[in-house]
Specification:
3 domains, HisK_dim/P_dom, transmembrane helix, five-stranded mixed sheet, coiled coil, 56% helix
C-alpha cells in the first residue's frame, strides 16, 4: 500500500502539470499564428485556433505589454487561477486531487512561462472536464500497472521466501523428526548448508546439540551395559562370598589361638564385601530401600566406622573424632554407617596414595534446623576432573581404578534421609565433605 501511494500520488500531480503545460504550448502556437499576420484574422479562423488549443482565450505579455491575442465568449465565471510558475510539489498534489474529487465542469485560468522565450507570461482560460477525464483515465492505468507490479513483486517475494526461509526451515524440521526416530544414529545429524546466516547459525547449533546428544546416548548405553555386567558380577560374587562366610564362621571355633583371633576380622571383611555386592545390585536396580529411622549415638557409630576401616593407633593415619558423647540423631544406622564408611575409606586411600602420614577428622554438631557431620582429611585434594561428576556413578572416581560408585551411593542415601551431601572444600591442604540431615524432615519419618 505504501508503494502504491508513493507511485500514484506524485504521478497524478505530474500528469496534471504536464497536461496544463501542453495546453499553454498549444495556446502559444495559436497566438503566434495570430501575431504572424498583420491584419485581423477572420472570426472563423480564430475560433478554430482556440478549439484546436482547447482554450477560450489567450493572453501574452511581451515587452511589458499584456495583450489579449485570441478570445472567445467564456461560458461562466472563472472558478480558480493556477500559476504554474510558482507551484510547488505539495500545491500540485493538492490541486490535482481537488480536481479529481470535483465532478463539476469549472472554468479556470492557467498562467505559465511561454516556450522559446516568446514572452514573459502566457495566460489561458479553459474547462476542467477534459483535464479531469484524462486524469481519471491515467489514474486507472497507473493503478492497474501498480497492482500488476505489486502482484509480480509479491510472487517473486513468495518464491524468495519459499527458497530462502520456508524450504530451509522445512529441512530443519525434517532433520529433527528424522533424528528423533533414531538419535543414536550419527548419520542423521544435520549438516548446515543454509544460505541465510541466521538459519545457518540455527543449523550449526542444532548440529552441535545433536552431536552432543548422540555421544551422551552412546555413553549412557555403554554405562547401562557396564552396569548390567557389574550387577551380574556382583550377584555371582555375593554368592561366592556367602559361601566363604559360612566357612569363615567355622574358623571361630578353631583351637589355634592365631586363627581364632583372625577369624572375626576375616568374617567382618567378608560381611562388608557381601554388603558392597548387595549395594551394587540395589543401585543398579535404583531400588535403595527407604531409611528406617531411629535414635542412635553418633560418636559410637563413628568409632565403629573408624575401627571397621582399620584406623587404629598402629597406622600412620590418625583418626580424630570430635563428636560430643551425648549427641544423638535420628537416622538409619546401617545406611549412615555406609555413608561414613565410604567417606572415610576415600579419605584413607587418598592419604595412603601420598605415602605420607595424614589425619582424618570426623566432627559433628547441630543447630535448630539440622544435624551436620563433617569428614575431612589432609590428603592431596580432588583433581578438577573428578569434581565435575563427583556424585555420578561410574564417572566421579577420584583415584585411579575407582568407579565413583561409593560417593554416588552415599549421596543417594543422604538424600533418602531428606538431607544432602556436599563437597565443602578440596585443595592442596585436603578435602572436606559435609552431611546435612534436617531435623524436621527426619522427624516426620517417625
Amino acid at each position: 500500500m505504501l508503494a502504491e501511494v508513493l507511485i500514484f500520488v506524485p504521478s497524478i500531480a505530474r500528469y496534471r502539470a504536464d497536461f496544463l503545460l501542453t495546453r499553454l504550448k498549444q495556446a502559444q502556437i495559436a497566438a503566434l499564428t495570430q501575431l504572424a499576420t498583420e491584419d485581423m484574422i477572420m472570426p472563423e479562423l480564430e475560433a478554430e485556433l482556440l478549439a484546436n488549443a482547447e482554450v477560450y482565450n489567450v493572453v501574452l505579455r511581451r515587452n511589458e505589454v499584456r495583450q489579449l491575442v485570441l478570445s472567445s465568449p467564456v461560458p461562466g465565471e472563472i472558478h480558480a487561477t493556477y500559476d504554474l510558475r510558482v507551484a510547488g510539489p505539495w500545491e500540485l498534489i493538492r490541486d490535482a486531487f481537488a480536481l479529481m474529487m470535483d465532478p463539476q465542469n469549472r472554468i479556470v485560468r492557467v498562467i505559465g512561462y511561454p516556450v522559446q522565450d516568446a514572452g514573459t507570461l502566457i495566460e489561458v482560460t479553459m474547462e476542467t472536464r477534459p483535464l479531469r477525464l484524462a486524469m481519471l483515465d491515467y489514474g486507472l492505468r497507473i493503478l492497474f500497472l501498480s497492482a500488476l507490479i505489486s502482484v509480480v513483486t509479491a510472487f517473486l517475494l513468495f518464491i524468495a521466501v519459499q527458497r530462502l526461509l520456508v524450504l530451509p526451515i522445512r529441512r530443519v524440521v525434517h532433520h529433527m523428526q528424522t533424528y528423533a526416530e533414531a538419535p543414536e544414529d550419527a548419520r542423521r545429524v544435520i549438516e548446515p548448508n543454509a544460505d541465510v546466516e541466521e538459519l545457518r547459525r540455527a543449523e550449526e547449533a542444532l548440529k552441535s546439540m545433536q552431536t552432543q546428544l548422540t555421544a551422551a546416548l552412546r555413553q549412557k548405553e555403554r554405562l547401562a551395559q557396564l552396569g548390567g555386567a557389574v550387577a551380574k558380577i556382583s550377584h555371582d560374587l555375593r554368592n561366592i562370598l556367602t559361601t566363604a562366610q559360612l566357612f569363615a564362621d567355622r574358623l571361630e571355633g578353631s583351637a589355634d589361638p592365631a586363627v581364632a583371633r583372625s577369624a572375626p576380622k576375616l568374617i567382618n571383611s567378608i560381611s562388608r564385601a557381601v554388603s558392597l555386592c548387595e549395594a551394587t545390585l540395589a543401585f543398579g536396580k535404583a531400588e535403595e530401600p527407604p531409611p528406617q529411622l531411629r535414635r542412635l549415638n553418633l560418636a559410637q557409630l563413628a568409632g565403629e566406622v573408624a575401627e571397621g576401616e582399620g584406623l587404629g593407633t598402629e597406622t600412620q593415619i590418625t583418626c580424630l573424632i570430635d563428636i560430643p558423647p551425648g549427641l544423638t540423631i535420628r537416622a538409619d544406622g546401617e545406611q549412615l554407617h555406609r555413608v561414613l564408611s565410604n567417606l572415610m575409606r576415600n579419605a584413607r586411600q587418598a592419604i595412603e596414595a601420598t605415602g605420607q602420614p595424614g589425619t582424618i577428622e570426623l566432627s559433628a554438631g547441630e543447630d535448630e534446623g539440622e544435624w551436620w557431620i563433617r569428614v575431612g582429611d589432609t590428603g592431596p585434594g580432588l583433581p578438577p576432573k573428578a569434581r565435575e561428576h563427583l556424585f555420578s556413578a561410574f564417572q566421579g572416581g577420584a583415584r585411579k581404578g575407582g568407579t565413583g560408585l561409593g560417593l554416588a551411593i552415599a549421596a543417594e542415601l543422604v538424600r533418602g534421609h531428606g538431607g544432602r551431601l556436599e563437597l565443602a572444600r578440596s585443595d592442596a591442604e585436603g578435602t572436606e565433605f559435609t552431611i546435612h540431615l534436617p531435623k524436621e524432615t527426619t522427624e516426620s519419618f517417625a
